[in-house]
Specification:
Elements lengths: L7 H19 L3 H29 L18 H14 L6 E5 H8 L3 H8 L9 E2 L5 H8 L9 H5 L1 H9 L1 E3 L7 E3 L12 H4 E13 L5 E15 L4 H19 L3 H29 L5
Antiparallel strand pairs: 1-2, 3-4, 5-6
Length: 291
């Protein structure tokens, strides 16, 4: 009879097994039963302590943001493909990739030309063109105070972890013109364009007093943790994956040949080792009669 754990068939068979279990348990020495009960109690206490610690840590979300790492892998092709989709959907409106062509993107990521044209290439662009934003620089400077930077080499200039932390440390700040601020780049001119996905969170700061000149205390606001204000369309894990894919794509764009370069590097090192060995054999042959 096929049934799940909650099915009636399993429940009907349970009394017989339970009776045998009780009979076996009755024959166990009292000391062994006591040991089992103590072990179960200790395990339950440890589990409760672990859950309490997890709850305490969750109340300090973001306190360790400087230790967050991207841990991306450009050889993960599906991740890079999703990152390309994310960039076109949320970034290309302001940022360009002026050293990358649409056609190169399609070839490297294994995207068919028809899909590339339909889902990624901007209206009016051709596959042979560079990936450029349609936002006029003068308008961008008027709106944001500065022209948004080109992101082609951003992963190499600032680092992958920098980009990962930047995209995950936006917080609501009503004092800013855009309504958002950032821990990785304070007073950034960039609005939190991913707020619909992540939701809104506010930064909680604590006052830290340090002695200064003349014995006067200098008060400084130090970041403590984030608090969620409004949820987004994605869960925390889903948003983390979204950022991970986006950073992975920007890492690929910063050096499209890095995967091939690393694979070729292994063969180059092996060639040099073999060549060195052959050179040593030739040297030994030439110099074997020289004393």
């Amino acid at each position: 009879m096929r049934t799940d754990a909650s099915g009636s068939g399993l429940r009907r068979g349970a009394p017989g097994r339970g009776a045998r279990g009780r009979s076996a348990a009755a024959g166990l020495p009292r000391t062994l039963l006591a040991a089992v009960l103590v072990a179960a109690l200790a395990y339950g206490t440890a589990q409760a302590a672990e859950e309490a610690a997890g709850a305490s840590a969750s109340g300090k979300f973001g306190a360790d943001w400087q230790k967050w790492r991207a841990n991306n892998d450009v050889t993960d092709l599906p991740s890079v493909q999703r990152g390309a989709r994310n960039f076109v959907s949320y970034c290309v409106g302001c940022h360009s990739l002026k050293y990358q062509r649409w056609s190169r993107l399609g070839v490297d990521l294994g995207i068919p030309p028809a899909v590339l044209q339909q889902d990624l290439i901007l209206p009016g662009d051709k596959p042979t063109q560079y990936i450029l934003t349609s936002m006029p620089p003068k308008d961008a400077e008027t709106w944001f105070g500065k022209t948004p930077p080109d992101l082609t080499l951003m992963a190499r200039a600032r680092g992958r972890d920098y980009l990962y932390q930047f995209l995950k440390t936006f917080y609501f700040d009503p004092t800013r013109q855009t309504g958002a601020n950032n821990l990785r780049l304070p007073t950034t001119a960039m609005p939190h364009v991913l707020s619909e996905l992540e939701g809104l969170k506010r930064a909680v700061f604590r006052d830290v007093a340090t002695p200064g000149e003349g014995g006067q205390l200098i008060h400084e606001q130090v970041f403590d943790h984030f608090e969620q204000v409004a949820p987004g369309r994605l869960t925390a894990a889903e948003y983390d994956g979204f950022v991970h894919d986006t950073v992975n794509f920007l890492d690929y764009v910063s050096e499209p040949t890095q995967t091939a370069r690393r694979a070729l590097g292994v063969w180059v090192v092996l060639f040099l080792l073999v060549f060195t060995w052959l050179t040593w054999l030739v040297k030994r042959e030439y110099w074997k009669d020289v004393h």
